[in-house]
Amino acid sequence: MGPVWALLLLLHITQNTEGFCDARVNNAQCYGALGGTIEIQLMDIGSATYKCQWKKNKQNIFVWRKNVVQTNKLENRSVFNASTGIIQIQNLTYNDNDSYSLEFNNKDGKQTKKTLHKLIIEAPVSFVLLQHKYLSNGEVRATCTPQRGDSLEYSWTLNGHNLTDSELLYKNSENNITLRQNTAGRLRCSVKNHISQEFKEINFSACDCDAGVTDAQCYGALGGTIEIQLMDSGSVTHRCRWKKNNKIIFEWKNNAVRTNKLENRSVFNASTGIIQIQNLTLSDSDSYSLEFYNKEGKQTKATLHKLIIEGK
Ligand SMILES: *[C@@H]1O[C@H](CO)[C@@H](O)[C@H](O)[C@H]1NC(C)=O
Ligand SMILES: *[C@@H]1O[C@H](CO)[C@@H](O)[C@H](O)[C@H]1NC(C)=O
Ligand SMILES: *[C@@H]1O[C@H](CO)[C@@H](O)[C@H](O)[C@H]1NC(C)=O
Ligand SMILES: *[C@@H]1O[C@H](CO)[C@@H](O)[C@H](O)[C@H]1NC(C)=O
Ligand SMILES: *[C@@H]1O[C@H](CO)[C@@H](O)[C@H](O)[C@H]1NC(C)=O
Ligand SMILES: *[C@@H]1O[C@H](CO)[C@@H](O)[C@H](O)[C@H]1NC(C)=O
Ligand SMILES: *[C@@H]1O[C@H](CO)[C@@H](O)[C@H](O)[C@H]1NC(C)=O
Ligand SMILES: *[C@@H]1O[C@H](CO)[C@@H](O)[C@H](O)[C@H]1NC(C)=O
Ligand SMILES: *[C@@H]1O[C@H](CO)[C@@H](O)[C@H](O)[C@H]1NC(C)=O
Ligand SMILES: *[C@@H]1O[C@H](CO)[C@@H](O)[C@H](O)[C@H]1NC(C)=O
Questions:
Q1: Residue nearest to ligand 3 atom 4, measured at CA
Q2: Distance 29 CA to ligand 1 centre (A)
Q3: What is its main location (predicted)?
Q4: Measuring CA to CA, which residue among 120, 192, 92 is closest to residue 149?
Q5: Which residues does ligand 4 sit against, CB inside 6 Å?
Q6: What are phi and psi of 282, to 5 degrees?
Q7: Whether the Cβ atoms of residue 32 and residue 88 lie closer than 8 Å to each other
Q8: Closest residue to atom 5 of ligand 7, CA basis
Q9: What is the DSSP code string of 100-133?
Q10: For residue 90, how far is its CA from the centre of ligand 1 (angstroms)?
Q11: For labelling alongside 238, which of 12, 41, 95, 187 has CA 20 to 30 A away?
Q12: pTM, 2 dp
């Protein structure tokens, strides 16, 4: 093989780490994406291979003999290029997930080489959902659930670094973790398998409940206190309405609190944007929404969240 070919082959391999398989290497494990495409190197580039048989589970699926393709059971979804020795297979299915062998014979019918390899088809990771809820003791539980994907591996970071012991209380499972009290920041869950990866991020604050994150579920203890982040700290929110079951319970407008139905048992701190509610009762358990408006009266953001008050 000349240096130019070697370089081309090298580039080819590095560009197709997931969708490329060198079947000439014994015991290769090759990964393909369900519905995707894989290129498999069967013969040497520009080689004068006399006979080559590629078998799936001991059945011939592709036979090359005397410079022609004699058999190609994948003909309707493959392209074989005789000058590169590569077969490209499209529309991969779980049925392709199997053990394969590759056998070479010379003119005299003698076997000159035999290799075994595996093709492993994985569904790509997709639609990663990252949810978190505040537990009544201030801990935060985060769960990461992709809707699709095989052989998944999870990893977590907070503000760009791996979770430390002072942040992570424990892992309930690889995709379900509990963070310590007062942990805050940008949490990222990354999910990968051999052929794909995806991540999802959320920002959350160190209070008990961040109402600005949609679908937050916040837990409070009966008779206890909860801190709820309504507005960003130090922000210049023009108008914000917090509704319980569609009725306004708190409204901020033009730098002042206009309505606070919880006035006798709450403290709102305008510089942090956090409202602290005391003496929680079971009737605080409800669905809430938080809406933001700009000066022109246009709604700029709306989120939904739930408050769940639990008895001791
Ligand atoms: C490929 O498609 C043709 C036409 O649909 C069909 O006759 C043939 O059996 C198919 N070949 C294989 C190997 O499935
Ligand atoms: C392969 O998939 C494409 C698009 O997903 C489809 O158009 C095509 O008919 C499929 N080919 C075979 C042989 O299944
Ligand atoms: C086979 O691959 C070579 C090198 O990549 C390319 O130049 C040639 O056009 C390909 N032939 C076919 C039939 O696709
Ligand atoms: C694919 O094959 C591997 C072993 O080679 C096996 O572990 C895996 O479960 C198979 N996947 C499917 C979807 O059958
Ligand atoms: C973070 O953890 C992963 C394994 O989960 C490890 O591969 C990586 O090196 C770690 N990064 C740092 C900066 O420690
Ligand atoms: C996460 O783990 C906790 C504790 O083991 C469990 O109660 C909870 O149901 C799990 N959540 C999900 C979404 O699996
Ligand atoms: C989290 O906050 C950072 C910095 O404030 C921002 O750039 C990013 O878009 C936020 N991410 C989400 C998912 O809200
Ligand atoms: C707060 O307490 C005062 C005095 O007891 C009462 O008049 C007022 O109606 C209470 N406000 C609310 C919103 O319950
Ligand atoms: C809240 O509870 C404390 C003690 O539990 C009590 O003294 C106080 O009167 C309660 N306040 C309201 C507004 O219910
Ligand atoms: C609001 O919170 C800030 C930061 O925690 C604190 O310094 C300030 O004293 C609080 N203001 C009120 C009125 O409680």
A1: 84
A2: 28
A3: membrane
A4: 192
A5: 94, 97, 118, 120
A6: -65, -25
A7: no
A8: 203
A9: EEEEEE-TTS-EEEEEEEEEEEEPPPEEEEEEEE
A10: 15
A11: 187
A12: 0.68
